[in-house]
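hey m, so remember when u said the tokens were messed up on ur end? i reran from scratch. heres the input so u can diff it against urs
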Amino acid sequence: MTELTVDQTVVDAQSVETTHLEQTDVLTELETEPCPEPTCDGSLDQSTYKGYDAVVCDDCATPAVCIWGDGK
């Protein structure tokens, strides 16, 4: 079984259908959040990572979330 952990909630990925709109909603929700890297003072911004939609730190360029798949 493939599992996805979001905010410590485990979701069975086979039981969840995600549309591109829902994926970008997730990215929008994470915009302006602080960078997850403990030594960075940057904030997250919608961008791309390796050609995929992502939320990336505006300071250290660390990707916090990347939507892999056909949404490229």
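this time it looks ok to me. Residues 20-30 form the longest helix (11 residues). if urs says something different then somethings off w ur setup not the seq
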